[in-house]
Design brief:
The protein is built from two helices and nine strands; from the N terminus they run H-E-E-E-E-H-E-E-E-E-E. The chain is an alpha+beta fold. Strands 1, 2, 3, 4, 5, 6, 7, 8 and 9 form a nine-stranded antiparallel β-sheet that branches. Strand 3 and strand 4 form a beta hairpin. The N and C termini lie far apart (about 50 Å). The N terminus is likely disordered.
C-alpha cells in the first residue's frame, strides 16, 4: 500500500499543478525595445523603379497584459533620420513631404494586442493603436509576427501608410509617378524589463 501511495500521491499533485497552471493568471509584461536592433524600412513604388529607405528608432517601450490584451507604450522614430540613398530625393522628402524640421518624430502608441502572444515560439497578432505622423494621429491595426524565447521578443510588422490621404504631398513629377501609399516594415527586438 505504501508503494502505491508513493507513486499515486506525486501523480495527483502533478496533475493538480498542471490543472491549476492553466488558471494561474499570466503577469503583464513590460518590454523595452532596442533601437540598435531595430530596422524601420520604407518602400515607395513607382512606374520606373522602387525607392527603398530607412529611419532610425529613437526609443521604444511596450507593456501588455496577455490575458486582456490591453497595451500601452510608445515607439518613437526619428523622422529626420529618413534616407533613401539619394541626397536630393531625401532633401525633398524632408522639406516638402514629411516636413521633418516641423514634425521631427513619428510615433506609434499601442493600446491593444489582438491575439495571444505565446511565451515561447511564434505568434501572429495585431497591434491596435495610434500612429502619429506629420502632426496628425491616425488609428491603425498592425499585423505582426512575434517570435518569443527566454524573455526576448523578435517582432516583424509590415503595413501601409496612405501618406497622401493623410495630408502629405505626393512627390510625383510629370516624368515620375509614385504610389500614394508607402509600405513600412519594422523588425525589432524587445526585452523584458
Amino acid at each position: 500500500m505504501t508503494k502505491l501511495m508513493r507513486v499515486f500521491v506525486p501523480l495527483c499533485v502533478s496533475a493538480a499543478l498542471l490543472v491549476a497552471g492553466e488558471s494561474i493568471p499570466v503577469q503583464p509584461r513590460s518590454l523595452v525595445i532596442d533601437p540598435a536592433q531595430t530596422k524601420v524600412e520604407f518602400t515607395l513604388g513607382s512606374l520606373l523603379h522602387t525607392v527603398h529607405g530607412n529611419f532610425q528608432l529613437k526609443r521604444g517601450t511596450l507593456s501588455f497584459d496577455p490575458q486582456s490584451g490591453k497595451a500601452h507604450g510608445e515607439l518613437v522614430v526619428d523622422a529626420t533620420s529618413g534616407e533613401s540613398g539619394s541626397p536630393a530625393r531625401d532633401k525633398r522628402m524632408h522639406a516638402s513631404i514629411l516636413e521633418s524640421a516641423k514634425y521631427p518624430e513619428i510615433t506609434f502608441r499601442p493600446d491593444r494586442v489582438d491575439g495571444k502572444v505565446a511565451p515561447e515560439g511564434k505568434s501572429q497578432v495585431q497591434l491596435h493603436g495610434v500612429f502619429a505622423i506629420h502632426g496628425v494621429e491616425h488609428e491603425i491595426l498592425l499585423p505582426a509576427t512575434v517570435d518569443a524565447a527566454a524573455g526576448q521578443y523578435n517582432v516583424a510588422a509590415t503595413f501601409e501608410v496612405p501618406y497622401v490621404t493623410w495630408g502629405m504631398k505626393n512627390p510625383s513629377t510629370l516624368m515620375l509617378r509614385v504610389n500614394d501609399t508607402v509600405e513600412i516594415t519594422i523588425h525589432t527586438v524587445a526585452h523584458t524589463m
